[in-house]
Design goal:
This protein has two helices and six strands. The protein has 86 residues and is of the alpha+beta class. A hairpin with a 6-residue loop joins strand 2 and strand 3.
Length: 86
């Protein structure tokens, strides 16, 4: 399951997020989205967990929790619509 995390602290790294979600099970990938021009965090990211049961528990347990000075929002990621080729 792909999980969306919003309202991260600007100092939160992908490793920080990965450690948080590994408390609930296996994490297959973790990414904090960065602004390419400023190289600063956009304060959101994604975690992928291969086991849905673990992922659901992680979402419930981490949504609206205080993490590194920010109250984060966590939910199952919605699939992105297909992009058209130009």
């Amino acid at each position: 399951m792909k999980i969306f995390i919003a309202k991260l602290s600007s100092r939160t790294t992908a490793d920080d997020v990965k450690r948080l979600f590994e408390r609930f099970g296996t994490v297959s990938s973790c990414k904090v989205i960065m602004d390419h021009e400023t190289n600063r965090s956009k304060c959101y990211g994604f975690v992928e967990m291969p086991h849905d049961k673990e992922a659901y528990v992680a979402v419930v347990e981490t949504n609206e929790m205080e993490f590194m000075g920010s109250v984060i929002n966590v939910k199952k990621s919605k699939p992105q619509p297909p992009t058209s080729k130009r």
